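SEVERITY: medium
COMPONENT: batch folding queue
REPORTER: lab tech (J.R.)

DESCRIPTION
The queue accepted two submissions in a row. Attaching both inputs and their returned structure tokens so the on-call engineer can compare them side by side.

ATTACHMENT 1
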Amino acid sequence: MSYQIEFRHIKYFLAVAEDLHFRKAAERLYISQPGLSRQIKQMEDDLGVSLFERHNRKVILTKAGEYLKTELSLNVKRLEHTFYHAKLLNDGKKGDLKFGYVGSAMQEIIPSLLVAFKKEHPDVIFNLKEMDNHKQIEGLLSYDLDLGFVRLDRVPKELEIKPILKEHFCLVLPHDHKLNKENFKGLYQLREEPFILFDPKYSATYFEKVMQIFDDSGFPPIVSHNTIHASSIYKLVESNFGVSIVPKSLIDRNNKQIKFIELTKIKQKTTLSMVWNRHNRNPILHSVFDFILKPAGK
């Protein structure tokens, strides 16, 4: 079977599939509406399928159209990345790596990683963005991200996940709180205090693990605030709105208004994992894997 589909047909189809409106898509593509309609009709005739149901006031994707939209969107993005990396190589760069990360990974892990990796690979461009776990997964599936650092136990089957750091939780208290490392016995001492926690939308699995800590301590927490930023947690704790629990990697040693107590005697720990799309063909990605996962001292 021979198809006469050209790249422009794919671009035109995706524009209409996204807008579900021929006039709006034509304006965005800077072509006439009749011309766009002809190109789509030509594509449908050549494929032998109907891509859209056309009604007086709306356009609807057929099942074949929905399938093509999903698959072509991903493949076009891969092709754009291929062209982009070819241009980088032409310009003397080894590649571009797009990182997503949860805030706790930026305290020590990512900065030390980037500094060390940059020494070995000075011609790599890095793009970094703090994102919650869910947004990172979306970005990895759509190829908008190359590598993510998340606090998740499971990821979609298209992705690979590798734990890189398992750490204790820490209590966060105002600097003048009566509890300290010497007189702290257990979380039950804080059963009457309000807690400021990471929003469950930030990571449902992380939130569930924190709830297990309270279950094992024998009381449900009084949650006064939920937030997605550690800086917001610390400001609220400073202002005596409550106490909190965070991963050890989020300890802020420069903030004298709060103090931390590491929870070394509880069974729960939190894991930071590296996650990526197994189909990602970014040429620099495996160099990063080798660098991060190589044994210390080598």
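ATTACHMENT 2
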Amino acid sequence: MLEGVKIVLELFFFTTLFAIPLGIVVALIRVSRNKIARTVTSIYIWIMRGSPLLLQLMFFYYVLPQISDKLTFDKMPVAIIAFSINYAAYYAEIFRAGLESIDKGQFEAAKVLGFDKLTMYKRIILPQVVKRVLPPVGNELITLVKDTSLVYILAMNDLLRIATVMSNRTTSLMPFLYAGIVYLIMTAILTQLLSFVEKKYSYYK
């Protein structure tokens, strides 16, 4: 099962690495004044949130290669791409809500003080947004750990697939129990880390 845990952690790490920055970029576009860009990102979020992640994995791995041989990728890159694009849509809405919760007076004050947009977001707006969105972002991270089990559709040796193979081989349900315990341990560790981060950046100490 260590091989399955390795795949879970690898997929979790790279999805988080790519999805959160992409989500921030999409959120910034969503609150911009460019109507066309807002419409495009709205459609993207609607598709990603409105269709199951399992179907998106199947589309990237099974459908795209039929369109063109150049769109054929290995299993792990496909999983990372699909998970990152999907989760970025959810993070985008979380960060958009966080941006819209910031008082408009702070944007105006930053302009009066002569801050350019990049400096304003980097030093004033985004630090506040991060504090406010930590709980929902944390929930998505915990969900991501469990969603990694969906890669079984790509025949990857993730934790759930290995448990299934072991169960079929031993005619026992105990491997599923072991897999469940491993997932619980991983989410428990992540929950404690997120709790520590939330307390560290809490407004009220």
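NOTES FROM REPORTER
The helical segments are 2-30, 35-50, 53-67, 75-100, 104-112, 117-147, 159-170, 174-200.
No errors were logged for either attachment.
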